[in-house]
User: Fold these one by one.
Assistant:
Number 1:
Amino acid sequence: MSLSLSRPRAGEWLALLGSVGLTVTLFAAHWYAAPARFRASLLALGEPVSASGWQTFGWLGPLCLLVGLLGIAAFLLAAGCASPAMPVISVTLLMPLALVLVLALAVRELVARPALQLPAGAGGPLQTLGGAYLGLGCALLIALGAWLCLRRDAVAPGDAPVLIETFRIGPPSPGAEA
């Protein structure tokens, strides 16, 4: 299997960009921070005042990682396979997972933000930082890329049908070599 960067279409490139962005953002960017009034107390206790997506998500963190890695795999399969079968299978798996991720991240960031729980009932909603919105944007990019891939699945123009081995099923046609 040789990688050819001319095989992936726009959808695979978008999914790759979103997948790399989501995977890096999940671990490297700060998604949430404690409210300003609690930061000094948290620092005095030696607690972090902000957290990455991986640190704050329960089941959503592994889903982000799975979607990111599946998007990268879809790109590599599109670049490495002359036949569209494997890339289509990977994108068919990616699309519903990406949609679930987009909906879950949108609810988590826009509707039900996580809250800081402190003793004696103190606390409040965490501040949403740029990493959260960047992660949501990357998830949207993955879903858009997967949708574009599913709309058009064919053999790349550079891969002639001669390069793809085909088999005839059934009795040979008259005059065909045995």
Number 2:
Amino acid sequence: MIRPADPPGEKAGPAGKIKALRVGILAAALLLWIGVLVFREAVLRIPVLIGPRGGVATESLRLELEWNPLWGIDSVLYEVEVDSLNGAFEHLVLQETCLSEPELRRDGVLQSGRTYYWRVRGGWDGKPARWSPTATFRTGPLPKTP
């Protein structure tokens, strides 16, 4: 039986194959570590919106927004935008910057019978991160249950 030649510079036989396997495992581990760092930067640095979301209806006209804090970053400041038109954030009813806590409460912002869109992003060292996914909620009386 004819066997393919070993690549140049490698020892023939099992020792060369074990060495190649070790190099492959180290390369895979390095790529995994790089992937974890990229994931941490790209995903974990985006606030997760707690509420309100999912188009939930609320009777209150008091704006009460909450999101998960960004951990592992010193001196995070949050920026919040609330839109009342279509979620494109071109018709803002509220834009708050320099918030140090992962919540926002305001009176006199919301009107009854409207749908609102909101998003949050963190920032540190003068650099803003990516915006969170947009969440929605509605104002007005809740449907009456029979």
Number 3:
Amino acid sequence: MMKLVVALTSLMLLTAALAAADTKREGVGGISVRVRGFQSNAGVAVCALFKKDGWLQPGKGQPRKVAIHDRRASCEFASVPYGTYAIAAFHDEDGDGEFDKRLGIPVESYCFSNRATPRRMRPPSFDAAKFEHGRAHTDQACELR
């Protein structure tokens, strides 16, 4: 009988621990993206938060437009479910909401999370830019190029 009580107690404790772990995995938190390296305070900073299946596809990211102060900007994403994400950001100097290019070459500064860099005139892969978000608040830094 005593073995049964110990086994049931252990099972209850294990179940409670697993439930707590599931709650943590399914939580939400904020993501702050600090963007630096602006050449001026003109225009706005545009940041977008992406999941893998929508990486850099129009309309698939969660965009933010924020003012630039002292050549820095901070984009805030609230109540983001825990998971794997990537950030793309750029300096929209003319405020037209578009990432401007001339002959396919960017004319506005840009950056990606995890210091990911373009390769062979193509944007980095999601895997190169990804980061894990799994706590109440995640900070990401992005340096424009």
